[in-house]
TrEMBL record:
Family membership: Belongs to the SprT family.
CC terms in the record's Gene Ontology section: cytoplasm
Keyword presence, Glycoprotein: no
Boundaries of every SprT-like domain copy: 7-158
One of the Pfam families matching this protein, by short name: SprT-like
Name this protein carries in UniProt: Protein SprT
Cofactor note as given: Binds 1 zinc ion.
Length: 164
């Protein structure tokens, strides 16, 4: 776990404690997040998860924006409870008032999308091509049937595969 990230989490909590004049329970912090999300706050578990790849690739902005963004979710939860909107006015108050940051909902980091294998199925329609995921293709091999909504014919595997 990078020390810079942990110290930034602590710094964010200290700023919130000064601003609200109360103490907050520190969260468990994990670096076990993959995919497109930079960070996730688990409110009822008081846990933060961060994406190590996006942290490495966007370190400066990650520490400046992403960490306070996620900490603000936990602070808002501890102050206002579960019935608030995730990016509602309470969370925005914390982002603006405590951290003096724009309350942006999403990051703009360049995220590599993973390639997926598609299995091509067809019906009797002229343009009736259906790319199936591996999971759906497996369901067909176990006996599940899928039908075209237009011609009502059972979709059948062409033997073709495509990487997207």
């Amino acid at each position: 776990m990078p020390e810079h990230l942990l110290s930034r989490v602590e710094h964010c909590y200290q700023k919130a404690e000064v601003f609200f004049k109360q103490s907050f329970v520190r969260p468990e912090v994990s670096f076990k997040l993959r995919g497109q999300k930079a960070g996730v706050a688990h409110l009822t578990e008081n846990k933060l998860r961060f994406n190590p790849q996006l942290y490495r690739e966007n370190r400066e902005d990650f520490l400046k924006q992403t960490v306070p963004h996620e900490v603000a979710h936990l602070i808002a939860h501890q102050l206002f409870g579960l019935r608030i909107q995730p990016h509602g006015e309470e969370w925005q108050l914390i982002m603006r008032g405590v951290y003096e940051l724009a309350p942006n909902r999403c990051h703009s980091y360049n995220v590599q999308r993973r390639t997926v294998n598609r299995y091509i199925y067809r019906c009797s329609c002229p343009q009736g091509e259906f790319p199936f995921s591996a999971q759906r293709h497996t369901m067909v091999s176990k006996g599940r049937r899928y039908f075209c909504r237009r011609c009502k014919v059972t979709l059948s595997f062409t033997g073709e595969q495509r990487i997207e």
